[in-house]
Design brief:
This protein is globular. The N and C termini lie far apart (about 55 Å). The protein contains 24 helices and 20 strands. By secondary structure, it is α/β, with parallel strands linked by helices.
Length: about 600
C-alpha cells in the first residue's frame, strides 16, 4: 500500500528530519510509529499523504508517486490524516458540518454524506452531538470530532498522529476498538503514539531516532528491549516496567508486553496457589493512611456549592427547547444534553497539597480549574482564594498572582519576540522594578532548567517543543504563585520529556508549592499525588488518597477511567492467590517491592 524508498527531508536545509528512511507498509497492516519528540515520526507520517514530499527518495501510495501533483487528490482521498491538536483540523461551527466537510469535498451525494456522518459519529461515541457547536466542546470531544471527520471519508489508510493524546482512558480504549474493527475490515492503520500499551495492538512497531529507523519488529520483539528503548528516551509497557523493577531487586523476570501474561508469570515466580491466604491489595496501606496534607490548616482555595453552565448560543437554546429532556450517555461517556459543566461542587485545597484531578472527557476538569483564579465565575455558589470571595473584582485580581494556571499545550501561551520578554510579561504587569523583574525571570528560567544567558535573547518560537513548554512554565513561575495549577501538562510529550517535566513539578512541590494537576494518566496521579479528586458529569464522584480512589476500579471504569497499571496487576495477582503485603501497590515500585519480598522470602 505504501512504499518509502531512501527518503530524506530537511526543514532548514541543514539538518535532516528524515535521513535515508526506507519502509514498506502492506495493504491492511497495522503499524505503530514510536520515537522521542523530534525523532521524525510526524514528518514521516506527513509524507504518507503528500502533505510533505521528500527532498530525496520516493514515496508511493497504492502505486501513486506523492511527488506527482496529478495524484495528490487521489492520494489524500486514500490516506486520511488525524492531527495531534484537533484545533488544527476543525473547520466548521457545528459538529455535523465539520464531519461532513470531507465527504462533501469528495463530491458524495447528500444521502451518502448523511449516512457517513452518522456512522462516523457513532464510531467515536458522539451520537446526538450533530448540532452541537465545536467551539463549546472539550479538548477530548474535539479530538473525536476530528477523528470522525476523517472516518467519514472512508479512507483506505488511516494515519493517527498522537490522536489519543487528549482522550481519557475510555476514549483511548474506544479509539483502539475502532482501529481494530477497521483493521479487521481491511483498513491500513498507521498510528503514532507515546502510549506503549497502544503499540501492543499493532502488527508491527517501527521506532525512529534522529530521522532514522532504529528498531523494527513485532510488539513482542521491540517493546521488551528495555535497555535499548531507554537509550532512545522511550518507555516500555507497564508490565515490562514491572519486570525491570523486579530485576533491579534481584528477581529474574522476563518482560512480557501482555499484561495478563505478565501477571501469570509473576504468580508462577511467587509459587502462589489460588486462594492460599491472599491478602487484599485494597486494604488500608500503611504509608497511605491518615488525614490529607495540612488537613487542619485553612484552605487556600475553597469551592462552596459551586455550579457553572456555559451560556448556550441562541441556536443552541432553540435546539434544546425543541428536544425532550432526557438523560442519555454515549458509549464513550458523553451526555449530549448536559447543561451543567459543574454541579454543586464542594472542595477545599489546603497549603502543601499535591492534588490530582481526574475525570472523563467533558467531566468539567478544565472548567473547575478556571474557577481557581477567577478566569471564570460560578453561575451559583462561591469560590474563595485565601478566604476572599472571587466575586469581588479586587480579590479576583489578587488571586491571579496567588494561583498560577498552566493550560493544555502551554507553548500556545507564548507570544513575545524573545524568551526574556515572554517570561517577564507577568512580573512587569505587577509593577515591579526592572531589577526585580530581571531577578524573577532568571530564577524562573533556572527552575525549569534553562539558562537566561543561553536562551534569553532567542525567539521562543525558535526553540524545541520541550523548551517552549518550559519557557511558558517559567512565565507562570515568575509570578511566584503559591499554587500551581496544571491542565494536562505532559500531553504530547515523549516519555523522557514527560518524566523530566513531571520530576520538575515534583521538585517544585517539595520546595513548598501547592500543586493541582489535571491528568488522564492514572499512573502519573498515583505516583505524584497525595490526594485525588474524580469528577463525573460535573460533580465530585470521589475524593481521597490515591489508595482510596484507585482501589475502586469498577467505579472508575464506569466513568471512563481506570486504575493505574500497577493496581490492575496487583488485583490480577490477588485473584491468582498471591498474598501481597499492604503498601503502595498502585505504583510499579510499590508492587515490585511487595512481589520481591514474597519471592525472596520464599527462597529463604
Amino acid at each position: 500500500m505504501i512504499s518509502c524508498e531512501h527518503i530524506r527531508y530537511t526543514y532548514d536545509g541543514a539538518t535532516y528530519a528524515l535521513d535515508d528512511v526506507s519502509l514498506t507498509i502492506a495493504d491492511g497492516e497495522f503499524v505503530c510509529l514510536l520515537g522521542g519528540n523530534g525523532s521524525g515520526k510526524s514528518t514521516l507520517a506527513k509524507h504518507l499523504n503528500a502533505l510533505l514530499v521528500p527532498d530525496e527518495g520516493r514515496v508511493t501510495v497504492d502505486g501513486m508517486d506523492t511527488a506527482d501533483t496529478e495524484f495528490t487528490y487521489d492520494i489524500r482521498s486514500t490516506v486520511g490524516y488525524v492531527f495531534q491538536n484537533p484545533d488544527d483540523q476543525l473547520v466548521a461551527t457545528l459538529v455535523e458540518d465539520d464531519v461532513a466537510f470531507g465527504p462533501e469535498n469528495l463530491g458524495e451525494e447528500p444521502d451518502a454524506i448523511a449516512r457517513a456522518v452518522a456512522e462516523a459519529l457513532r464510531d467515536v461515541g458522539l451520537m446526538d452531538f450533530e448540532r452541537h457547536e465545536t467551539h463549546a466542546l472539550s479538548g477530548g470531544q474535539k479530538q473525536r470530532v476530528a477523528i470522525a471527520g476523517v472516518l467519514a471519508m472512508r479512507p483506505r489508510v488511516l494515519v493517527l498522529d498522537e490522536a489519543s493524546a487528549m482522550l481519557d482512558p475510555r476514549g483511548r480504549a474506544g479509539l483502539l476498538r475502532v482501529c481494530r474493527r477497521l483493521h479487521e475490515a481491511g483498513m491500513t492503520i498507521v498510528m503514532i503514539t507515546h502510549y506503549m500499551e497502544e503499540a501492543t495492538a499493532a502488527d508491527r512497531v517501527v521506532v525512529l531516532d534522529a530521522g532514522k529507523i532504529a528498531l523494527e519488529g513485532t510488539p513482542e520483539d521491540v517493546l521488551t528491549q528495555v535497555e535499548v528503548l531507554g537509550r532512545l528516551n522511550l518507555e516500555v509497557p507497564a508490565c515490562c516496567q514491572l519486570a525491570l523493577a523486579l530485576r533491579e531487586r534481584g528477581v529474574a523476570c522476563t518482560p512480557r508486553v501482555d499484561e495478563g501474561a505478565m501477571v501469570r508469570a509473576v504468580a508462577e515466580l511467587v509459587g502462589a496457589c489460588a486462594g492460599d491466604g491472599a491478602e487484599d491489595p485494597c486494604a488500608p496501606a500503611d504509608d497511605d493512611a491518615g488525614a490529607p496534607v495540612s488537613a487542619g490548616s485553612k484552605p487556600l482555595i475553597s469551592f462552596e456549592h459551586v455550579s457553572y453552565s456555559y451560556e448556550p448560543s441562541v441556536r443552541e437554546r432553540a435546539r434544546r427547547r425543541r428536544l425532550p429532556r432526557r438523560k442519555k450517555a454515549a458509549a464513550w461517556g458523553s451526555d449530549p444534553e448536559a447543561i451543567w459543566a459543574l454541579h454543586n461542587i464542594d472542595l477545599a485545597i489546603r497549603p502543601g497539597e499535591f492534588l490530582g484531578i481526574a475525570g472523563h472527557t467533558g467531566s468539567g476538569k478544565s472548567t473547575l480549574i478556571q474557577h481557581m483564579n477567577g478566569l471564570v465565575h460560578p453561575t451559583m455558589g462561591r469560590v474563595a482564594v485565601c478566604g476572599e470571595n472571587l466575586a469581588d473584582r479586587r480579590a479576583a485580581d489578587e488571586a491571579k498572582t496567588v494561583v498560577g494556571v498552566v493550560f493544555q499545550y502551554p507553548e500556545h501561551q507564548l507570544f513575545a519576540q524573545t524568551v526574556l520578554e515572554d517570561v517577564a510579561f507577568g512580573p512587569k504587569n505587577l509593577g515591579l522594578s526592572a531589577d526585580e523583574v530581571d531577578a524573577r525571570v532568571r530564577e524562573a528560567l533556572r527552575l525549569v532548567g534553562l539558562s537566561a544567558d543561553v536562551v534569553g535573547s532567542k525567539s521562543p518560537f525558535a526553540l524545541s517543543g520541550g523548551q517552549q513548554r518550559r519557557v511558558a512554565f517559567a512565565g507562570v513561575l515568575a509570578m511566584r504563585p503559591r499554587v500551581l495549577v496544571l491542565d494536562e501538562p505532559a500531553a504530547g510529550l515523549d516519555p523522557a520529556a514527560r518524566r523530566e517535566f513531571l520530576d520538575l513539578v515534583a521538585h517544585l512541590h517539595d520546595e513548598g508549592l501547592t500543586v493541582i494537576m489535571v491528568s488522564h494518566s492514572m499512573d502519573d496521579l498515583a505516583e505524584l499525588c497525595d490526594r485525588v479528586v474524580v469528577l463525573n458529569e460535573g460533580a465530585v464522584l470521589m475524593d481521597g488518597t490515591p489508595h482510596d480512589v484507585f482501589c475502586r476500579p469498577d467505579e472508575l471504569r464506569r466513568v471512563g477511567l481506570d486504575a493505574p497499571a500497577a493496581q490492575r496487576m496487583a488485583m490480577g495477582l490477588r485473584a491468582l492467590g498471591v498474598p501481597l503485603a499492604h503498601g503502595r501497590l498502585y505504583t510499579i515500585e510499590g508492587l515490585a517491592c511487595a512481589v520481591a519480598a514474597l519471592v525472596q522470602g520464599g527462597a529463604r
